[in-house]
Design goal:
The complex is a heterodimer of chains A (613) and B (388). Chain A is mainly beta. Chain A has nine helices and 40 strands. The longest helix of chain A is centred in the N-terminal third of the chain and has 11 residues. Chain A is globular. Among the domains of chain B are: 89 residues, Alpha Horseshoe (Serine Threonine Protein Phosphatase 5, Tetratricopeptide repeat); 65 residues, Tetratricopeptide repeat domain (Serine Threonine Protein Phosphatase 5, Tetratricopeptide repeat), CATH 1.25.40. The chains are: A mainly beta (613), B mainly alpha (388). Chains A and B meet through α9 of A and α7, α9, α16 and α17 of B.
Amino acid sequence: MPVHSLQACPVSREQQTMNSKLFFNRRAFLKAFACSALAGLPGCTQRPGKTAALQTPHSTPAPDPQNGIFIDVAQQAGIRFIENNGAAGSFEFVETTGGGCAFLDYNCDGFMDVLLIQTGPDPGTPLSAPRPHCVLYHNNGDGTFTDVSLEAGFCFDQGYAQGVAVGDFNNDGYPDVFITAYNGCTLLQNDGHGKFHNVTQKSGTGETGRSRWATSAAFGDYNNDGLLDLIVLHYAPWTPASNTACHDVKNRLDYCSPQVYTYDHPALYRNNGDGTFTDVTEETGLSVLKGRGLGVIWIDYDQDGKLDLFITNDLMPNQLLHNEGGRFKDVGLQAGVAYGSDGNTLSGMGVTAADTDNSGWESIVVTNFSSQPDSFYHALGKGMFEDDTYTSGIGDATLTTLSFGVTFLDYNRDGLPDVFIGNGHVDPYVSDSSPNTTYAEPKQLLQNLGGSRFQLVTADLGSLAVPTVTRGLAVADYLNHGRQAVLTNNQNEPAQLLQCRSTDSNHWVSLRLEGVHCNRDGAGALVRLTAGRVLHFAQSRLSNGYASSSDPRIYFGLGKHKYIEKLEIEWPGKHREVWIGPFEADRFYHVRQGSKPQADPRTRPARLSQNAS
Amino acid sequence: MNQATKRFAAGICVGGGVLLLLFAGFKLLSPSPAQVEYQHGSDLMQVQMYEAAQKDFQTAIRLNPHYPPPYRALAMMAQKQGSYPLAAEWWRKYLHLSPHASHAWCRLALTELESGQEVQAYQDAHTELKLSPQCPRAALVLGEIDVHRSEAAAALLHLQTAAKAYPNQPQVQLAYARVLALTHQYDDAAQILHTLLSAYANHPDPYVWLGYVYARRSNSPQDWQKAETFLRQGLAIDPVNARALFELGRLRLMERQYAKAIPLLQQAAQYKRHFLGALYTLAQAQQGLHQTSAALQTLKEFRTESDMAQQEISLLKSCSANPKNPAVYLALGQLEIKRQEPRAALIVLQTASKLQPGQPQILLAIKKARQMLHANASALPSGMPSQP
């Protein structure tokens, strides 16, 4: 049976409509935007002047989606998912922010599986049928995926879902899942036998019935007790009744500016180790923060052994929360990461971090609204940053786009992390007021040229040039072939699985960490390796970008170097281990705390099936 | 009745009718006393005898309070003399009598904007756009407001309309070039600004904004050199131009000449209140020189100002979204008091007071704003204006 015909869950009417008719019941304007990806289907003729070539702000030749650096293989792989944000013309503000996605190896078979977040009818709409749920796809190990939502326990109402955080909160070796949503989140515990159990109520992380608008979340061990804690961001107090009607330049009903709404604060849940969490928002100093939180990462920015937080806020300053041993203090302003280069407040969306210049310190990229450049906060070391947005080349490349999802990846494996950005505006009418900006936008790849200078890749874009309204994105080597692929969740359009087709012959290495005296995921570990006398540095991080979680294995491009000379891991709690190589490149290693790195017994390369190839 | 009498009576009737018709025609064709006064006043205004003209217009209003033109004339005259709040009052009275008058709402909006009544200006410009969607004055007003509210895309669209309608108006062209520069369209901005240099030679702004454009267009030394030259030219015309000082300070900061940047940025912050960019950049320069405590102090000041500026924009947008909610106006008024802007506070508090007369918190805030305004006026040395 072809994989794509499998239907895992009892299908609700809404889900059926979505899957089979591809949201033809939507208002005409949304249909028109969706058509860019679905040209050729009945009722979905592409509008003149809206070809991918015209919508690519920086490209000159008309791109071919089937040829290029990244090719969308979602259809062949059996991923047929459309995130329906529920927009039906009432312009409820909450419609603009969903949804995220994740790569996770839920059954520990060595292949990264896929989880895509579904929003569904907006919170103001009474449900006429069960709400469509998030979908879990099992990686078959041959380049294809199977929808296993039913057997994995995902077929229930997860609310107006927004994002996802993945982490092994009970240290049993199997990744668990936290789904953020408007008006109540969900914690799903993985039983290790392919099924997730809803433990929200017991865990105390649900925020049920409090009308809070949770966006991104991330697992991280802030107190180094070996248990993953959970940070949950909130956007603003909002209810369908409080939704304000605003109008665009042509006096049509439109989404309001975020400033019409107030702000909220994040919540921090401390893991008690018995399946329950304690809300420590107040005692850790987070309750006094003000923000319209959208993106969050755990980052030990000053490498003092305690995980700090970086939070982006929509039209409010970014926050860099320094962990002062149980309490957090916002040092974003002093560290130079809170504002734009002239002190202007930006609309922070997603956030990611990587060592872009082999300095041993992670620099930070924040995605922002259109007409604002995405920010590049270049790490100077010891906790200080310099705003190199324009000098890095990122500023000019990202001025017209509205970016949400963002990640570092090394697409050409040269050892210099590149930036991958998912774009898509929130305003369907944006072209009327900004002729250079479109609602659906192409994705962007910025190649790291070294020295923290980046250049927008404009040739052979392949599927990157297809305009979409992308929100969350995640990265993984899902084939275990030594190349990173990108999963994107797009509003009202099919999700994409973008396989990298770079022809480089560079080397790479992938590390799966296993903590013993710290959290089992090794989240927060600082990894330094030397290859060809070049230092490569990364922090182990479970969630990044926007509302999404990526392959937890740490991936390094090594350029021409075939061997790793030295590997050093600083586990959470300042437990440092150093191994002198040589270790062969182009391998997957399993690094268990206290043991020498070994070839990962769990990982084998995918043997591509007829469908996938 | 004999034939002669009948004829006589008929003649009388016809004659009377004719007379009556003549009288009615005369009444119709001859101007009313109010019209006479208005016409006289208009003639006087033509020859710039404003005081006498004003008296005639007021007499015309006394004679016929429902006759709209004198209100319009008084509004135009007040506007010409720079009495914007007064002009706004006359425009409102005029529009009360002729709500569909052509291009009056946008003129009202312009005067309101000039007198700091941003919320009303925003509403009235939108009313104008409903009557005449292409009205360039309304576009100009909305463009300026959009700039203040950091709505770059909308500002660009509105000011583009205004710039097309007024190709020979340097102020409109400058406003458009400025928003082009702010939205990073440097080449388009430079083109307009270069044209303005000849038409507007004694004004610092085209030079200063050209400096802005070249300082940001690229990192090339040639562009930075051009920026320096234009900024210096702007400063030669207006030595206390905060924007020019800031841009020069910013250039020094990018060259890592922190010691030279600091005095320029300090002056910029001094000459323009609430200048966030100047404060933020000053702190960076201080950090560059390891003046840690000074940098922290500046950052603290910046943060306070920045938070208040964000709150201001947020409340202004809330006022536009909920124009009948006195609580939002009160909050905005209280914020303006906190920002040491009593004049702006009074304007919004008076609106709050109209929406909810006698509300104690509003009255208290008005009292506070008035006290602050008086204190500011008395604290100023003689001859200095009370508002920068």
